[in-house]
Amino acid sequence: EKGGFPHFMLKEIHQQPHAIADTFAGRLAAGTLQQELGIGTDEARAIRRIDMIACGTSWHSALIGRRLFEEFAGIPASAEIASEYRYRPRPTEEGTYALAITQSGETADTIAALRATREAGARTGAICNVVGSTVAREADGVLYTRAGPEISVASTKAFTTQVTALLLMALTLGRLRGRLDPARAGQLSEALVKAPEKIAGLLGRMAAPLQALAREKANSNDFLYLGRGYGYPLALEGALKLKEISYIHAEGYPSGELKHGPIALISKGLPVVAIAPNDSLRDKVLSNLEEVKARDGTVIAVGTEGDADLASLADHAVWIPPVEPAIVPLYASLPLQLFAYFMAVERGCDVDQPRNLAKSVTVE
Ligand code: F6R
């Protein structure tokens, strides 16, 4: 059942090219997504804010979604941790669209937060993987991620398919609201359609070097993950994967926060994983990395092929092809997942069933 892979997690990492393709299949044509979500055109135009509700890895998708909705649809958006949101006094605002993001559809806090927003009068939607789950049944509309069953406790394909679904939604809303011209929407769709094949190639190329890197770093007990823009949620996600399955202390930070505290942690050899693709914030991440190097930290970079400055700064680097910044999360999450996986294997951890964790958190 593991399809020749030693663990479900590795199998699921490799299923991502297919899973992403399944997520966008048949949904790029105008109108299809609206139908699934049950949002009429007038309604889509009347949305004034999107509150995304999620936990864990799904919350990291929400952080990416926030940027996608604001960038492509011009809709103010927030990424809310469900356990906080459900207990926060909120002024209700007309035109609020509450979007639950959940692989299982059974996370107790996400369900409760979704119910609270419905009661407050918000229109609700869900991005969910499990057909017929509680969230899928209770939301006004559902966009299924079609990732297939995710067995490994650590989420991988659920994450990248959620990001794909969010991108589809942002493009749809951007077009309906006249925010995104058809040519630009076409470019982004095309970049998305090309992703599965390129990602499959990348997975093949990256595995061996990342395994070697994990061997080298297997005894490191602290990691810092840094990124900006779309890279910030990826830093959080990379750190979460590492702690969940290899039990190594890891912190994810927006790299602009480095000076505001975490730089004090940097000492000789501290591994700093930097997500530094070639986007508008790349120069700023590089200057943060110079500060890391000045303090003898070890830089492990995820960057764009051909970035000579980053290559000279980094002690180790993994390269992704040049792609649209909004699509980068689909590529850059792969080395982070694979690295966490190999670290856990090197340390003899139970990859698919990490201690203390359950696949779906059905109690508060
Ligand atoms: C991380 C992980 C958890 C889940 C979280 C939300 O690898 O698996 O952080 O992402 O418990 O679960 P869902 O998406 O089912 O609501």
UniProtKB/TrEMBL annotation:
Residues annotated as domain SIS: 39-179, 213-354
Subcellular location: Cytoplasm
EC number from the UniProt entry: 2.6.1.16
Assigned keywords, A-Z: Aminotransferase, Cytoplasm, Glutamine amidotransferase, Repeat, Transferase
Any one Gene Ontology molecular-function term assigned to this protein's record: carbohydrate derivative binding
GO biological process, any: amino sugar biosynthetic process
Catalytic activities: D-fructose 6-phosphate + L-glutamine = D-glucosamine 6-phosphate + L-glutamate
Cytoplasm recorded as keyword: yes
Function: Catalyzes the first step in hexosamine metabolism, converting fructose-6P into glucosamine-6P using glutamine as a nitrogen source.
Organism name: Vulgatibacter incomptus
Active site: 359 (for fru-6p isomerization activity)
Protein name: Glutamine--fructose-6-phosphate aminotransferase [isomerizing]
Residue range from the parent sequence: 248 to 611 of 611
Cellular component, GO, one term: cytosol
Complexes and interactors: Homodimer.
Keyword hit for Transcription: no
